[in-house]
Amino acid sequence: MFKKYKNKPKTIEAMQFTEEYKDRCLNALTGQHSPDIEMGRPIIKVTTIHGEIAIVRIGDWIVKEEKLGFYYPIKDYLFKEGYTK
Fold it and tell me: Contact at 8 Å (CB) between 61 and 51?
């Protein structure tokens, strides 16, 4: 039987990958990541804590894992639903 669970609130570090701040995002990242182009638009390929390559597209948020050098992307609408300043 399924039971209901609540998310524990925690504080994260994140930045939004935008056209305006794409260079700042790249400069702020450590660890394994690489800029690329997809259909004429900039993307960033980041390595997740699970060793997978995730793609960050314009408008996505880059969330910093607690373990240095690892990140994961979150779509803007999901980020806005789940996080506040």
Answer: no
Number of domains making up the chain: 1
Q: Which of 56, 50, 53 is nearest to 75 (CA)?
A: 56
- The pLDDT-based confidence of 68 (bands split at 50, 70, 90) is confident
pLDDT digits (tens, 9 = 90+) for 4-37: 877 777 889 999 999 999 999 999 998 889 999 9
Residue 2 lies in a domain: no
The pLDDT of residue 6 is: 78
CA atoms within 13 A on the CB side of 77: 0
**Residue 44 belongs to domain spanning:** 13-82
